[in-house]
Design the sequence.
């Protein structure tokens, strides 16, 4: 089996080499393409740098001179405010990390366990179960019934689980995973495992999953980002302050300020309240802290990511 | 092979079971309400105000209360513990207080909970939060007339007029805070500059009257912009149109009760005159050239680079803003105080229809109007932990910047006149409030609620047009005549005439039924 893969790889490389000589891009094109992508990168990175710069800018300077990449007066006051503002932010950080780790692992497991049987030719009801998942992509139950499921049918409101369970299964990821299993795992591999005496579970955990690392990493990254960036579930289900996650804290502050400045708050205290909410730089400091850990997830997943993205393309 | 299979499936089952068990376990300690109150606490639906006899045997009733605010204060559990200790003997209830952020967050939380029939007991509502009119009309709130008749104390404190202002078709669905019952508009001026140039503010009774002051600033203070305008926080508000709907929906009455005709106030002669005045001021450099793109008036005021700002006023507003912006202000009242829907439905407490203990909830709300200790406990926290008493009615916060409990709840519930005063506030504040309330003119539209359902499209398209034009006009950033012409044309196309006609029809009907 190993040698088969190897020859395939060699073939691919030699084809690639041959082609690249014939299709080498001209120097001008090369520069243009590079320039284009440099610009794209700048457009993506600049706002983040600006946020970081703002978070380090002196508050007064911000009000007088506005935003700048190179503030005249630096200040750590925003971080000081954030860090001394009690354990709120650290606790929220903890909740976010716990939910993301636990959520990603459980979610991957559930998705794979659903996707794998559907990828197998020999599974009798695969059409029914495919449709079953597909159906949920088109039709939803509506907000209130959905809400009632997690508050009354499964009473997990105000627990850590309510931020995990609703996103455990995702039909779209499941389909990507199914396709990945189908295209990567040839029926003959499973057959050979069976001949060697492996049961279904062993085949799945020992043979199939390790071969699908790229797919797992891709879906894993999606799940990680989904869990990390989520503020919708806490908004719906969490009323207990201790269970707020970092994104929700940020949402709460930004949303409050946006609402109060919009002028739709018809009460005479609104300007007073507005004046007491966290300052611009403090808000940016929270934003910077909230992108912190997730940035480390990228390099971890990256080596699989590109490969994973080509899922679905026809392979030899 | 069979063996591995069995082990694997066993493992899987274990994991699933564990998940469920964990989910179940972690629920009781944290379950504040919803699921929790469905089980234990409701076992005895005590229907009684006679808390005297059997209270010790009965388990306390739990009241869940949703309130809008900046955030849940970190010391809330400590304060609630005190509250519950106090309430145990009085009503035999325990209180669970949740505070959610302004705007979307609060609306989302309350509206879903109401729609899902969660047994909340008290919710904050207003014309701007958890839409009082819509939720009351949908039957989510308990009608309170019966309780008001049975326990008349709240009615005595609030007065019939004010209470009826929030009634819908003669039925009360919520109880307004007893606070300022009128509003007026005016200026906040930067105190140091007023003193430096010895300005006389006593004669400023119109918008134009402030021009000489702006001129002084413009000529002598190159660093300072005379007038601070951002979005809807503009001098336009000083015209004080009695708006029928939202800020950005055309349709208003004159604020002096002169007639019963609803007009498009954005294009009224007075407004156009005002736009021209703003244009003039812009040309003279009294307004920041970028004013039309400014977002946040308060942030601008904090920068100390502005001299005057239009604000909704009440007695002591300048002290309040001085304390919260760190810059000293003096207030100049311009418009006459009026009592409008803005005040009567500005801060209310309602009892959701799904509440299991509406009577207890009502009695608790009544305590917020009558019990000074309870009101201040919820508002300022625990004495000597969160605040110090300086005299009988004056307090000082301990370490206000890092206080564990400083929610600023005073105006949100109960009787605000029972609140302690801060040391930096006018000791006469509440007396001035009372006098201010009496001064107010009761507007003809008080109690009228516009129902948008018939003209939903017109409302939203008119809103879009107004959003596209108002900033330029309010700040005088464009030539007025051609812009107003264009504005009028687009509003017409958006169906402003039908909208005003519908407002007028509903208003006439409502007046007849009154």
Sequence:
């Amino acid at each position: 089996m190993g040698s088969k893969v190897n020859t395939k790889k060699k073939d691919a490389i030699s084809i690639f080499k041959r082609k690249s000589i014939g299709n080498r891009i001209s120097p001008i094109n090369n520069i243009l393409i590079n320039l284009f992508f440099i610009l794209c990168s700048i457009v993506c990175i600049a706002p983040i740098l600006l946020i970081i710069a703002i978070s380090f800018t002196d508050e007064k300077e911000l009000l007088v001179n506005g935003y700048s990449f190179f503030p005249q007066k630096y200040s750590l006051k925003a971080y000081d405010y954030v860090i001394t503002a009690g354990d709120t932010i650290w606790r929220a950080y903890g909740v976010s990390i716990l939910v993301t780790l636990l959520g990603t692992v459980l979610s991957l497991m559930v998705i794979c366990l659903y996707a794998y049987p559907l990828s197998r030719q020999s599974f009798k009801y695969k059409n029914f179960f495919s449709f079953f998942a597909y159906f949920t992509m088109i039709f939803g139950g509506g907000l209130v019934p959905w809400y009632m499921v997690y508050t009354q049918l499964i009473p997990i409101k105000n627990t850590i689980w309510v931020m995990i369970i609703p996103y455990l299964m995702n039909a779209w990821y499941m389909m990507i995973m199914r396709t990945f299993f189908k295209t990567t795992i040839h029926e003959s591999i499973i057959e050979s495992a069976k001949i060697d005496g492996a049961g279904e579970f062993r085949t799945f955990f020992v043979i199939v999953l390790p071969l699908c690392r790229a797919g797992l990493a891709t879906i894993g990254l999606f799940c990680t980002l989904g869990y990390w960036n989520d503020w919708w579930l806490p908004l719906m289900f969490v009323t207990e302050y201790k269970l707020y996650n970092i994104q929700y804290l940020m949402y709460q502050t930004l949303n409050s300020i946006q609402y109060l400045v919009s002028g739709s708050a018809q009460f005479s205290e609104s300007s007073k309240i507005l004046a007491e909410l966290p300052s611009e730089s403090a808000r940016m400091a929270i934003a910077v802290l909230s992108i912190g850990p997730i940035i480390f997830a990228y390099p971890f997943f990256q080596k699989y990511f590109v490969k994973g993205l080509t899922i679905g393309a026809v392979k030899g | 092979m069979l063996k591995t299979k069995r082990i694997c499936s066993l493992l899987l089952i274990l994991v699933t079971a564990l998940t469920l068990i964990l989910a179940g376990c972690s629920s009781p300690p944290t379950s504040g309400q919803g699921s929790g109150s469905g089980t234990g606490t409701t076992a005895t639906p005590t229907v009684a105000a006679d808390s005297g006899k059997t209270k010790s045997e009965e388990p306390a009733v739990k009241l869940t209360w949703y309130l809008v605010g900046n955030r849940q204060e970190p010391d809330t559990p400590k304060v609630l513990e005190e509250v519950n200790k106090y309430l145990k003997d009085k009503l035999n209830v325990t209180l669970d207080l949740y505070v959610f952020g302004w705007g979307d967050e609060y609306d989302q939380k309350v509206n879903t909970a109401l729609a899902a029939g969660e047994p909340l007991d008290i919710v904050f509502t207003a014309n701007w939060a958890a839409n009082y009119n819509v939720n009351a009309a949908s039957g989510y709130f308990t009608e309170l007339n019966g309780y008001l008749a049975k326990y008349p104390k709240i009615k005595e404190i609030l007065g019939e007029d004010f209470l009826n202002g929030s009634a819908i078709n003669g039925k009360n669905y919520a109880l307004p805070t007893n606070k300022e019952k009128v509003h007026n508009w005016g200026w906040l001026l930067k105190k140091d500059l007023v003193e430096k140039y010895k300005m006389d503010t006593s004669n400023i009774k119109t918008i134009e009257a402030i021009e000489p002051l702006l001129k002084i600033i413009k000529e002598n203070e190159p660093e300072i912009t005379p007038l601070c305008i951002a979005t809807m926080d503009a001098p336009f508000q000083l015209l004080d149109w009695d708006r029928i709907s939202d800020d950005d929906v055309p349709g208003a009455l004159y604020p002096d009760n002169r007639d019963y005709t609803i007009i498009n106030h954005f294009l009224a002669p007075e407004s156009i005159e005002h736009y021209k005045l703003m244009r003039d001021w812009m040309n003279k450099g009294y307004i920041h050239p970028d004013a039309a793109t400014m977002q946040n008036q308060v942030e601008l005021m904090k920068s100390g680079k502005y001299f005057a700002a239009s604000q909704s006023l009440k007695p002591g507003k300048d002290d309040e803003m001085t304390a919260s912006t760190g810059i000293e202000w003096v207030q100049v009242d311009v418009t006459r105080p009026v009592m409008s829907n803005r005040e009567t439905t500005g801060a209310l407490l309602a009892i959701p229809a799904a509440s299991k203990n509406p009577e207890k909830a009502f009695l608790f709300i009544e305590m917020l109007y009558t019990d000074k200790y309870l009101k201040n406990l919820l508002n300022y926290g625990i004495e000597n932990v969160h605040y110090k008493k300086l005299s009988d009615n004056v307090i000082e916060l301990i370490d206000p910047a890092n206080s564990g409990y400083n929610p600023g709840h005073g105006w949100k519930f109960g009787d605000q006149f029972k609140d302690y005063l801060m040391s930096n506030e006018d000791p006469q504040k509440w007396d001035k409030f009372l006098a201010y309330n009496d001064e107010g003119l009761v507007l003809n539209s008080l109690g009228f609620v516009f129902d948008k359902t018939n003209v939903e499209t017109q409302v939203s398209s008119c809103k879009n047009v107004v959003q596209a034009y108002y900033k330029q006009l309010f700040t005088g950033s464009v030539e007025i005549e051609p812009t107003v012409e264009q504005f009028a044309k687009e509003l017409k196309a958006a169906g402003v005439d039908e909208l005003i006609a519908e407002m007028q029809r509903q208003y006439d009907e409502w007046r007849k039924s009154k």
Notes: The first helix of chain B runs from residue 2 to 30. Chain B touches chain A through 74 residues (CB under 8 Å). The first strand of chain B starts at residue 61 and ends at 68.
